[in-house]
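lol so apparently i was supposed to do this last week
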Amino acid sequence: MAKKISINTIQKYKDNNEKFSVLTAYDYSTAKYIDEAGIDIILIGDSLAMTALGYPNTNSIGVTEMEIFTKAVARATNHALVITDMPFMSYHKTEAEAIENCGKMIKAGANGVKIEGATDYILNVIKHVTQVGIPVMGHVGFTPQFLNAIGGYNIQGKTYEATLEILEQAKKLEQAGVFSIVLEMVPEESAQYITEHLKVPTISCGAGRYCDAQVLVCDDLFGKFSDFKPKFARKYGDMKSLIFNCAKQYNEDVKSGKFPSDEEVFTLGEDELKQLKIH
Ligand code: KIV
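anyway here it is w/ 3-methyl-2-oxobutanoic acid bound
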């Protein structure tokens, strides 16, 4: 496996017109296999609030939970760049609080953090966080943490003016020091225009084919999360059925006495067995 990916590798990909891959992971074993498969960036996305913890949206998760999942993923990862999503309200009160919480993710093993939005307030936070040496991935277009303000899971950048607005936000993020930018739920022509006008790489999350990279939520890719399926989430497997069938078979085997078998038990030696039978 090639050496550890850094933010410089990511920029080189863009400069050389080479696509790269981003995938979420939340636990040790999943991160291990994703890393071995050669994924470039592993994102501990706050999507785990929904996929792993069963919350209705991403806003319910906190810093402590993100730290725990970051530790698990970081321990498993040798190759990929590890980025942790900063949860809702963890970088919103003061610059000092933002630096402290982002620093917690670095101490937990992340190589950088992702921060949603590009309002003046958020841009200022990003400047402070990058200035202390913490790489930041930006995120514009549809930003789930702004769900209540946006008013629904709406596609962004649907007009010429709206595309220019996202580009302006992305340029400001670039100036604030981000090393890459997620574009979420944006028409692919708008995402292409934005990508062509930026120096840093863009990562498509439902923003079409012309971004520099693609990101998917691992549970969508594995076919594990079934509460809803975004249009852009390609399913590469059917883990839901796999888990269901394994659990069903196990349940039946326990109840019928087929599990455990001779090979799956520890047995006593003959002498000990004789004594047991005598007493
Ligand atoms: O939370 C997440 O998983 C994300 C990605 C899908 C971009 O933000």
